Amino acid sequence: MHNIRAKLAVVALVLFVCGLLFPASYYEQSKPTVDTESTDKPVTSAEPINEELLSNTETETILSEQKTRYVAHRGYSAAAPENTSIAFELAGKSAFWGIETDIQETSDGVFVCMHDDTIDRTTDGSGTISEYSYGAVSELSITSGANIDKYPYLSIPTMQEYLEICKTYNCVPIIEIKHITDHEGFLKLITDNGLHDKCIVTGQIEDLTRIREIDDTIFLMLIGYSNIEPQKYKELLDTITGNKGILYNYPAVTKDVVTMFHNDNNYIGVWSLETYEEAEVYFDYGADYVVTNEIPGRDDLMINTNE
Question: CATH number, domain at 265?
Answer without folding.
Answer: 3.20.20.190
